[in-house]
Amino acid sequence: MEPRLVGPGPYRATRLWNEIIELFRAGMPLRKHRCRFKSYERCFKASEAVDCLHELLGSNQNFGPEVTRDQTVKLLKKFLKNHVIEDIKGRWGKEDFEDDGHLYRFPPSSPLKSYPKKPSCGKEVIKFPDWNESKAGPSQEHIPVKSVVMNSEMWYKRHSIAIGEVPACKLVFHRELTPTNIEEIWKSMTLSRLQKVLGLDSLDEVLDTKLVNSKHIVQNVYNVNKQGIVTLDDKSKELPHWILSAMKCLANWPSCSDLKQPTYSGFERDVFKTIVDYFGQMKEPLLTFHFFDIFVSVLGLLQKPSKAVEALQISCLLLPPENRKRLQLLVRMMARISLNQDLPPLSESVRTRSLMVQAFSRCILCSKDEIDLDELLAAKLVSFLMDNYQEILTVPSALKSSIEDHVVHLQRVQIKYAGADSDATLPPPSFCQQIATGEFEYQRATDSQEPLAALLEKIVMNKEISVKDKKKKLKQFQKSYPEVYRVRFPSPETEAMLFPEKTKRTPPILMWAFKKPFQPFHRTRSFRM
């Protein structure tokens, strides 16, 4: 089974979980092992599982070569807890997996997670606010305009262009936009652009748009200093001065402007530990729990760096200003430390860059509910942030210009014709994007295989039908959909694990079986002496 790229969209963490399990079950060598004078068939050592899964994750484009062996062990702990694997005595449910010689095996039951119902295929268009209609109450004074209708002959005489009847028109004078109106425009156009970059029909499955604060977007765009760092109106939400001094010390090592030169060995490690402890005690990650799914979806675009950068630029605008500022300062410090050759090693066994990812990934991105792959996903995102933080943590200039132009357009006097239902302020209609034939075939195969795989799992896990009926249904499924069946059962051995053979008892040997059978009496000729 070849690994495939899991793109952005809903339930990406679940799709990645099932992808890794299928690859691991298909690629893990199984053989006979001995333990305490007993032999066990079709099992593997814990260290062998770590070697196999680590190599698999490193070569998978959804995770990459930066996955460490320690992260692989933690993932195998979750495999044991979720019954993806079990020890040779059938025990599971605890995270007591270690990188040693203990024996494990795959259980016959399926560990794959079922897919939720797919979202509606209809494309959602984010509605833009319309403030052309006057508010209730006393209306503003407008200059009365009389409707004029001209025939083509009169219009041709004036302009030498015969265009037929000219509809009635009227002047629509702009109404002053309030700060709230402008904030709503920013929110609508920002979310619309994010949806387009991600290539999704709707943001509903990855983002609750009601939780997006329009004030945060405007503050993150306009309240910045010369370095592009967000400035906060509420100074109580600023980082403590001693943490800022510690971060500046390591980021600018060995030029520590706020601190005196160190007087003992290991000073830089103590400063680093202080920073790690401060960010580790936060109750919520910097990217917040609400935006976990949207940032996980962005990870599906890492094969297209320019798209991923733009998606992260827009996503980071949604953060509360204090979170965005802390993220800017923290990631900039991490990147500078990783590239600083003058800074002594902060760990004896881990490289500086890997140490930065391990130490701060969880305080940047994690899920409120325990997600099986959240640590690997966070490490992937933090690595990309460190490499591209100067672009990602700045305001996207193209988006800013388009929104500002849109606001200016709304404030101009407009001419509207009678019977014209369309509004020039609305975004242009979206059209289907043409893709290559290979991409079309891949999407068709992927979208059709997911519900079929779910149907196969339902048959496998159904305990209400007999073994005979289950075998019959699986045989029919294999004949109809051989490729989907081959993914679930890559070898005859994996299929045989679903139906373990019962040991047949040998009947006892009866003693009378050894006796000669009864022989009838035969008459013999008598001889006279």
TrEMBL record:
Start and end residues of each Rho-GAP domain: 201-393
Keywords of this entry: GTPase activation
PROSITE patterns listed in its UniProt record: RHOGAP
SUPFAM superfamilies reported in the protein's UniProt record: GTPase activation domain, GAP, Winged helix' DNA-binding domain
GO biological process, one term: intracellular signal transduction
Organism in which the protein naturally occurs: Certhia brachydactyla (short-toed tree-creeper)
Claim: DNA repair is one of the keywords in the record: no
Name of protein: DEP domain-containing protein 1B
InterPro entries in alphabetical order: DEP_dom (IPR000591), Rho_GTPase_activation_prot (IPR008936), RhoGAP_dom (IPR000198), WH-like_DNA-bd_sf (IPR036388), WH_DNA-bd_sf (IPR036390)
One annotated GO molecular function: GTPase activator activity
